Every structure is written in C-alpha cells, then in structure tokens.
Amino acid sequence: MITYNTEHVKMPAIKRRETTRWIRRVAEYYGKKVGEVGYLFCDDEKILEVNREYLGHDYYTDIITFDYCEGAVLNGDLVISLDTVRTNAEKFGKDYDEELHRVIIHGILHLCGINDKGPGEREKMEEAEDLALCMYPLNGSCDGLVLMGEPVAPDYEPVDQQKADQEK
Questions:
Q1: DSSP string of 79-93?
Q2: Cα separation of 80 and 63, whole Å?
C-alpha cells in the first residue's frame, strides 16, 4: 500500500491513484513489488528536523528515503520538502509538477537499489528518473530515451491506465 500524508503543508495536486499505479509500474520494471510505502510531504523546517535527527545532517534537502525493504518487496518512508522541490524547480528552470514527480520517483528508485552518491551514480540515477518519468501515463512515449548508453525499450509505450480500465 502507498500512503500520502502531509505535515505543515497542503497536499500537493497529484493524482494519487494514477501516481500509485505509476510507482508500481516503475517498481515492477526493476523486478520489485510495492509493499508498504509512505510519503510525507512537508516544509523545509520539517525536513531539516528529520535530517538532523535521523541522519545527523544540518541542511535542507528535497527528499529523505528510509529504506525498510525486504528482498524484492519495497518498504519505506519518503519525506519530501515541497519548499525545496519548488526552489529546485525554479533554480533548474523546470516545471514544479515535473520536479515533484521526479522527486517522488527518486525515492522509489533508491528503494529499488539505485544510488546517487558514488562516482558515476548521479548520472545513472538521472537516467533512471528520466525513464520513470516517461513511463508516467501523461508523458507520452519513451522513444529516443537512452539509459547507460543504450536505447531503452524502444517499443515501450506507457499504458493509458484510464483507457485500459475502461476497456475491461
């Protein structure tokens, strides 16, 4: 089950059912199954508090991922600062919703085993984020996407889940 909660902020305007299906599809792509995943959307002050208390870091960040995975089952808590997401979207000239979805899936990719701190890992994470974003139902196809120097699923077309559900 995937849950979405807030602290000190309004719930972001995400389509929770669609986002949940997307997260499950991304996990499945990496051979994983979603167990218990909890999102907490918060402000900068809350994420700084969490960062200090649990990680000993004294700085703001967009996401903190707590990994409780068991084998191929993804379990974890993901804390996302909507303040930092907005700041980063402005800083990098990105659409807020795209940046928010990038951060939402970033935590899932960590749970799938993709890291971003070591040499060359940041690039692999960004490619995995790009792949995941193209899998989001409203983003079109993955045509032309390259992951680790190789074209990714050239015939992959994201499923229009609403259309598929209506056809059942």
A1: EEEHHHHHHHHHHTT
A2: 4
* Residues 119-167: tens digit of each pLDDT: 889 999 999 999 999 888 755 556 555 554 555 554 444 343 344 445 4
Question: Which residues have CB under 8 Å from 146's CB, separation 6+?
Answer: 127, 152
Instruction: Report the alpha-carbon distance of residue 12 to residue 160 in Å, rounded.
Output: 22
The mean per-residue pLDDT over the stretch 97-108 comes to 96
How far apart are alpha carbons 125 and 63 in whole angstroms?
14
The answer to which of 27-36, 67-76, 80-89, 148-157 has the lowest mean pLDDT is 148-157
Indicate the fold that domain 2-167 takes in CATH. Answer: Collagenase (Catalytic Domain) (3.40.390)
Report domain extents, the chain: 2-167
Look at the chain and count its residues: 168
Q: Residue 6: beta bridge partners?
A: 41
Q: Which structure tokens are listed for 11?
A: 């719930």
Tokens of 34: 């979603």
| Distance in angstroms (rounded) separating the CA atoms of residues 94 and 90 | 6
> Which residues have a Cβ under 8 Å from the Cβ of 114 and sit 6 or more positions away?
121, 124, 125, 128
Helix (H, G, I), strand (E, B) or coil at 28: helix
Mean pLDDT of the chain: 86
